[in-house]
User: What shape does this take?
Amino acid sequence: MTTTGTTLVIGATGTTGSRTAARLTAAGHRVKAGSRSAGPVPGAEPVRFDWYDSATHAAALDGVDRVYLIPPLGDPDPAAVMLPFLQQARVAGVRRAVLLSSSAIAGGGPAVGAVHQALPGLFEQWAVLRPSWFMQNFTGTHVHAVSIREEGAILTATGSGRVGFVDADDIAAVAVHALTEERAPDTDLILTGPEALSYDDIAAITTEVSGRPVVHRRLSYEEMRDRLTALAVPPEFAVILAGMDRAIAEGAEDRVTDTVQRLTGRPPRTFRSLLYKELR
Assistant: This one.
């Protein structure tokens, strides 16, 4: 790795942001940990950052030469707030930007796809991380994890479609590589775990490891959309998420890549090993 200046990690208390900040500080890099609460992050300088409060942006960017970007959660049009910030970041001296997107959204696609498309025109050094669905969705506070604990069920509109679920720690490892290596990737990177699993497979493995029965309940697209809306997901974003489930059912996420192995030098974690770590 090359010696870097200071990295602003946006969403530094979140799933991938906290892991990325921890890896950067452990490797001796200077980090400004941006979050709405400006809560403490070990080894990093906490700084208040709110996508929707532009008054927080200048202080967060002060002295920063690279940034890890977590889009505002649940916003169907994140470009409206992200692109003005990125233009400000370039003027402030940021040279490299690494954006967290999704394997389901290509450059120019909906939501964060517009930011992906704009990024190469804003920064000479860049990367877009496009991870598959997080393994942590089944162990944290995500709707799937809650329904597993409360109902013993995972509810999706994915049918028998398979997904290359990826560990958030592996995403963070790739993020650190993209932020700190001498040459930026200057491309998008699709990140998956080592195997593609259906939600039936996820339920079976969770049952095996936890010792509690878990089933996969198959919903229609409309049922999934309405369920998300009932859970207070904004209707426009619920349509996007339910549409992603439908795409999975049609095979859009049935793939694995070697990106984690190639960039970090180690194989990605399996879902079973993550559960043993989290639940045992």
